[in-house]
Amino acid sequence: MPSETDSFGKTVLLLDSNQKLREMRARRLRLYGISVHTIGRVEEARACLEGNTYNLVLVAPRKNPDEVIEFHREINRLYPAQRVAFLVGPPKYISSTYGMNVIPMPARRETWADRLKGRLASA
C-alpha cells in the first residue's frame, strides 16, 4: 500500500476528493522526501489504514464534513496512536482538530508543505 520510505523516512496518507489538488499536494510533499499514498474517498482510507502505519493521515474535508468527523472518531477509536491533520480553509492552514486549533501558515517564507515537514519531523 504505502510506497517505500525514502531519505526523509516519513509516510503520509493523503485523503482529498479533489484529484488535481491531491496530486499537486502529493508532488510537493514528495519534493521534500516524504512518501505519499493518495486516495480520494473515506472508504479507501479505511482500507488503507488496515495493517498500515502512517506518520500522518492528512485529510482535506471537502464534500461531506460529517463523514470526515466520523472517520476521525473511527481512527481515534481503532488506531489511537495514528496522527491526523486536516487541511482547512485555503490550502494554507493545517488543523489537528478539524474546526478548532487552526495553525495559520506564514505567508511566503514557509509553505504548507514546509510546515507539514516540520510536524512530521517530530512524529
Would you give an account of this structure?
This protein is an alpha/beta fold and 123 residues long. The protein has one domain: 3-Layer(aba) Sandwich (Rossmann fold). 37% of the residues lie in helices and 27% in strands. The chain contains 4 helices and 6 strands; from the N terminus they run βαβαβαβββα. It has helices spanning 19-31, 42-49, 65-78, 112-121; strands at 10-16, 34-39, 56-60, 84-88, 93-97, 100-104. The chain has a 6-stranded mixed beta sheet with strand order 2-1-3-4-5-6, sandwiched between helices. Helix 3 (65-78) links the parallel strand 3 and strand 4 (84-88). The longest helix is centred in the middle third of the chain and has 14 residues, at 65-78. Mean pLDDT is 78; it is low at 1-7.
Structural key phrases:
single chain, 123 residues, alpha/beta, Rossmann fold, six-stranded mixed sheet, disordered N terminus
